[in-house]
Every structure is written in C-alpha cells, then in structure tokens.
Amino acid sequence: MSTALPNPTGPIITLDSAAISTGLAASRINPRKRIILPLQRSQSARVQRLANFLQPGTYIQPHCHPEPHATESVTLIHGRLEILHFSESGQILARWTLEENGTRVIDIEPRTWHGMIVHQKDTIIFEVKQGPYDPTRDKTFAPWAPAESDPQAPAYLKSLTADGSESC
Questions:
Q1: Segment 107-111 long-range contacts (CB within 8 Å, at least 24 positions apart)
Q2: Which of 60, 119, 124, 158 has the fewest CB atoms inside 10 Å of its own CB, making it the most exposed?
Q3: Is the pTM here over 0.90, yes or no?
Q4: Do residues 83 and 98 lie in contact, with contact meaning Cβ atoms separated by under 8 Å?
Q5: What are the DSSP calls for 94-157, one per residue?
Q6: Interatomic CA distance for residues 121 and 131, integer angstroms
Q7: What's the longest Cα–Cα distance across the chain?
Q8: CATH code for residues 17-160
Q9: pLDDT tens digits along 73-118
C-alpha cells in the first residue's frame, strides 16, 4: 500500500493538470483513499512541500507533530474538508471547514493534536512543513484514537463528523 508517489526531479516542478490527474487517479484506487505527491526533490529537503489527494472516507488518525519546528501549513486547492483540533484527551476543541468559497488556509503549531475529515470527492490540499522528513519523528499518533489499520477506525471517523453522517 503506497503512501506517496515518487519525488520529482528537475529544477522546476509544476502542479499542472497532468500531475493533478495522476494524483487523483492514484488516490481513487489506493486502499487508503489518499496519496501524496511530494514536490520537494528529496525527503531530506529542509522544506517539505506536498500535494495531498484525498477521497471521502480516508482515515487520518489524529496526531501531532512533536518536533519544535514542525509547524504545518495546509492550503486547500480543491474540494472540502474539516480540520479538527483535539485536547490531550481526545475531545474536539474546534473544527474549521476548508472550502473553495471560504477558509482556504490553516496553520497548525507543533504539538497540537489535529486530524481531518474529507467531505468532497477529489479534495486536494498543499501542505508545507519544515524538514527534513524523518518518519520516526514526524508524527505522534493519538493514543485515544484507533490506528488506521484498526477495524474500529471507520466507526471512529464517522463519530467525528458534526452530524454523525458519512462523509461524501
């Protein structure tokens, strides 16, 4: 199960219609219902930039970025999703909807518990974080939320929606 497309090469990279089509097609067939297209040439880059292609029903376990430099900026390119802010115990403190005719950018400080719910097919976000990327230190997953592979994850995701309905 792939989590990302290959890092690009070359001095200039564009997120053009071909790249968007590739990312969306990959997210639609990926069992995780999402795929990352890195825009940095290497995971060791000092600034990590990526396009994230997301489908409704993808479960992103609530997490925080523990490194003191790990501010995460998220910009909506297309679609609709919610960003949730959680307490240390898993209570939802706030939620923001990112949508094309509303809020488009959210900036999340390090050590802030957060997650997201995708509400529209073919949602695309652009994320920026300071690198380099180290998968062993990038995220701390919330102990109060099921892991992505847990059979309870779909029910937990459904419980996070404001009205308890399926994302669509």
A1: 107/71, 107/72, 107/73, 107/74, 108/65, 108/71, 108/72, 108/73, 108/74, 108/83, 109/71, 110/64, 110/65, 110/66, 110/67, 110/68, 110/69, 110/70, 110/71, 111/64, 111/65, 111/66, 111/68
A2: 158
A3: yes
A4: yes
A5: EEEEEETTS--EEEE-TT--EEEEE-STTEEEEEEEES---TTTS-EE-TTS--TTSTTHHHHH
A6: 29
A7: 46
A8: 2.60.120.10
A9: 999 999 999 999 999 999 999 999 999 999 999 999 999 999 999 9
Token pair 């523990």: residue:
66
Distance CA 4, CA 10 (A): 18
Q: For residue 158, what are its two tokens?
A: 């459904």
